[in-house]
Design brief:
It contains eleven helices and twelve strands. The chain is an alpha+beta fold. The strands form two sheets. Strands 1, 4, 5, 6, 7, 8, 9, 10, 11 and 12 form a ten-stranded antiparallel beta sheet that branches. Strands 2-3 form a two-stranded antiparallel sheet.
């Protein structure tokens, strides 16, 4: 009897080990750069037409993979409507105008009352804009305790949300996530600076256009700026470098995580000046422009993404670029704003041979 039991235990152990190996293989194939290459090679060997995998997507931050709330998507899809708030809304002193506009816009989009006037006393009490916004939808005492716990562990006096978030009760955390992400993504987007200095010509906008090489209609997931080789490329806002490398489509490129699900990418560089993991201030020089990758001329392909989905940079740069954009029926797709609404996101192209580029990688 004992021998039989040992025999069955041995078999069970063998089955468990086999299942572990199969699970590890599945994880490798489905969630690693090597697996992506193997899947791509197998599909090509079988005669299927598939898009070349981008290794950059395996280095996305938690912010980009995670909490892109419906309110955030709604806010960006309607970003051209950004204004001072409801008609006759009172002025809020002592708070950044971009924060007031973002909060009022998100509240109006959700048909919620305007609570911007509550921000100044909350900021004075909690010492943090993010804590003040969290306290609009969570109990202020819960937020205050979470902030103090974060400070006790060494967080800066103006405690960032990610530092005090773990100390919030779960219900308060969910409510705060749903408001902080859209509001502060809009704040960052409103305050972004340009990715290059001086006058610049937008030679290809966001949206569909005729592929200059394949001759088919493709989706361009960013905007192309005509700049000479060696032009300094600037971080549009402070952020962390989550990718600095090269692939066959985008050439040498840098991807920054600005928090709240918002990222920016700078493609076709001739030289990269930063490394993955570095934290940069806004306007930091991160690369020099070029024509690396799949391009027929020197330019910068600049891309903004929200929750991993490309959005039209001209929603926020339109006023600054309005006199410089090349006129044509293929420049921009500002009525849509969100490439996420289209099934062909990730395929790309540019309008003219001068700055032709195909951006098919997932940035």
């Amino acid at each position: 009897m004992i021998a039989l039991a040992k025999k069955w235990m041995g078999r069970a152990k063998g089955v468990a080990q086999l299942l572990s190996v199969l699970f590890a293989l599945y994880a490798m194939v489905s969630a690693t750069p090597l697996g992506a290459v193997l899947r791509y090679s197998a599909n090509r060997a079988l005669g299927y037409r598939v898009k070349r995998p981008s290794l950059a997507r395996f280095f996305d931050s938690e912010a980009e993979r995670g909490r892109a709330s419906s309110g955030l998507v709604l806010a960006f899809a309607n970003a051209p409507k950004l204004g001072p708030g409801p008609e006759g809304a009172p002025e809020v002193t002592g708070v950044r105008p971009s924060l007031v506009r973002a909060l009022r816009f998100v509240s109006e989009s959700r048909k919620q009352k305007d609570r911007a006037l509550e921000l100044p006393p909350l900021i004075r009490r909690l010492g943090s804009e993010e804590a003040a916004v969290a306290a609009l939808v969570a109990d202020v005492e819960d937020v205050a305790r979470a902030v103090e716990q974060a400070r006790g562990l060494g967080a800066s006096p103006a405690v960032p949300y990610e530092a005090f978030r773990p100390f919030l009760p779960s219900s308060a955390r969910d409510a705060a996530d749903d408001l902080i992400a859209p509001v502060f993504a809009l704040v960052v987007a409103q305050e972004m600076t340009l990715p290059v200095e001086g006058r610049v010509r937008v030679t290809s906008g966001f949206g569909y256009r005729q592929h200059p090489i394949l001759g088919t209609r493709r989706f361009h997931t960013g905007i192309d700026l005509a700049v000479p080789v060696g032009t300094g490329l600037l971080a549009v806002a402070s952020g962390k470098v989550v990718y600095a490398g090269e692939d066959s489509v985008n050439g040498k490129f840098v991807k920054l995580d600005h928090g709240y699900g918002l990222t920016s990418a700078y493609c076709h560089a001739s030289e990269l000046l930063v490394k993955r993991g570095e934290r940069l201030d806004g306007k930091s020089v991160l690369a020099k422009s070029g024509e690396s990758g799949r391009a027929t001329g020197p330019h910068l392909h600049f891309q903004l993404s929200l929750g991993g989905k490309p959005i039209d940079p001209m929603l926020f740069y339109g006023d600054r670029f309005k006199d410089l954009v090349s006129v044509g029926d293929e420049v921009g797709a500002h009525g849509r704003g969100l490439a996420a609404l289209d099934p062909h996101v990730g395929e790309g192209g540019a309008r003219d041979r001068e700055t032709a580029v195909v951006d098919e990688a997932e940035l």
